[in-house]
Amino acid sequence: MTAAISAATIAFVTALLLGVMIGRRLDGHRWPRRLDSILSRGRRADGSSGSGDAGLPPRAADPAPAPRAVLEGAELRDSDVVATTPDGRMTKAGLLSLIVRNSATAVAVVDEFRDVVLFNHRAVELGLVREMLLADTVWEAVKDVLDTDADLDFEFTPPTSTLGFVSTGRTPRPTVEHVRCQAKIVAQDGERYAVVYGLDDTQHKRLEETRRDFVANVSHELKTPVGAIGLLAEALLESADDVESVRHFGSRVVTETQRMGKLVTELLELSRLQGGDTPEFTRVDVDALIDDALDAAGLAAEAAAIELKSDKPIRKAVRGDRALLLTALNNLVSNAIAYSPAHTVVSVTRRLAIENGRPMVAIAVTDRGVGIAKADQERVFERFFRIDKARSRMTGGTGLGLAIVKHVVANHDGTVKLWSEPGTGSTFTLYIPEDPAHVSPSRTAAARATAAPDAL
């Protein structure tokens, strides 16, 4: 936790607070009225500020039982410190203030009376300070730190905004879901403050959740073939004298081991893709790529009574890793065959396209199968997601094929799109950037014209 919050940020904030306290005593310099009214209020026992300025808020008589409204002047601004020396150079206080104001770490400072006296804008962005109040979770942590003088690490989940729900009818996923915080005491000559540091930990938390789900899914997927192999091995031992039974159970063992081997291979492939580990790209002929994919799927299509068709060559090329692109295309064709009824057609077509303002080659795989419901179309590219688990087990699917397709396309700076209608069929289309060395001037101009309106 301590490592997550930048040690430099803690040092900067502490130095900024202590430096100002010391500076006010050594050279008589006073802060600008706004911040001076916050940090210096209540110097006198009679509750007045002692500054001679009218309207400065008195210091609280007792610690607050609940969060009090945060003064607007508590947000750190460039005018709160003397930023330059008489000769025009930046002061240390000015530099520290600049760093804290622009820090990726949220900072909120609470005095011993539990009033927020200082915060940066990042504290608002991460929800520590919201609608001029300190968030409840942060408030509880600050109270504990002020009461015990002990540093405290805690996690904070910002409240979800309802604005997206009001306008769209559904709750949007927040951009900040987890904030990792640390609260600690800083003090100097009788002045005592609790400083809360907050760091956006959303990506790390999402990664942890993804890894946890991945491990659970992998364990489940491996458990099935391993368990089947164990049962088949027992059956083999019990049928040692029955040649036909041995042959039957032995073939089943081979099938399950092949399934497990395929799963492990695809897991390794997916791990490599997610790590961005791709070989140097070369020129890949699109027509030859499609021919190889159809040749590889020929036997499976024949066994399933599926006819494979393709359109005419376009004599175009893309830049990429041929093995990865062939794997992605093989996965799409294999899925199309597996989810199509007998005596139907699976077709592979190619065309030139402009996608996101760039010249692309679009390769589409179309089947006349069961189709995919709207509710499932957003999830089909997730790892281990299966629409029909029974059919997937029957065909030996691992639930990783489309996840691999997604990552292959992403590593080639392309996209994959899905059109599907239940009862009609599905079309998966790969968009891969065309080889720049062979893009015609007219295609380049068309791509620029398409991108121009988006840039306005």
TrEMBL record:
<dbReference type="InterPro" id="IPR036097">
    <property type="entry name" value="HisK_dim/P_sf"/>
</dbReference>
<feature type="compositionally biased region" description="Low complexity">
    <location>
        <begin position="54"/>
        <end position="65"/>
    </location>
</feature>
<dbReference type="InterPro" id="IPR005467">
    <property type="entry name" value="His_kinase_dom"/>
</dbReference>
<dbReference type="InterPro" id="IPR050351">
    <property type="entry name" value="BphY/WalK/GraS-like"/>
</dbReference>
<keyword id="KW-0472">Membrane</keyword>
<dbReference type="Pfam" id="PF00512">
    <property type="entry name" value="HisKA"/>
</dbReference>
<dbReference type="InterPro" id="IPR036890">
    <property type="entry name" value="HATPase_C_sf"/>
</dbReference>
<dbReference type="InterPro" id="IPR004358">
    <property type="entry name" value="Sig_transdc_His_kin-like_C"/>
</dbReference>
<keyword id="KW-0418">Kinase</keyword>
<dbReference type="InterPro" id="IPR003661">
    <property type="entry name" value="HisK_dim/P_dom"/>
</dbReference>
<dbReference type="Pfam" id="PF02518">
    <property type="entry name" value="HATPase_c"/>
</dbReference>
<dbReference type="GO" id="GO:0000160">
    <property type="term" value="P:phosphorelay signal transduction system"/>
</dbReference>
<keyword id="KW-0597">Phosphoprotein</keyword>
<dbReference type="InterPro" id="IPR003594">
    <property type="entry name" value="HATPase_dom"/>
</dbReference>
<protein>
    <recommendedName>
        <fullName>Sensor-like histidine kinase SenX3</fullName>
        <ecNumber>2.7.13.3</ecNumber>
    </recommendedName>
</protein>
<dbReference type="GO" id="GO:0005886">
    <property type="term" value="C:plasma membrane"/>
</dbReference>
<dbReference type="GO" id="GO:0004673">
    <property type="term" value="F:protein histidine kinase activity"/>
</dbReference>
<feature type="domain" description="Histidine kinase">
    <location>
        <begin position="217"/>
        <end position="436"/>
    </location>
</feature>
<feature type="region of interest" description="Disordered">
    <location>
        <begin position="42"/>
        <end position="65"/>
    </location>
</feature>
<keyword id="KW-0808">Transferase</keyword>
<dbReference type="GO" id="GO:0005509">
    <property type="term" value="F:calcium ion binding"/>
</dbReference>
<keyword id="KW-0902">Two-component regulatory system</keyword>
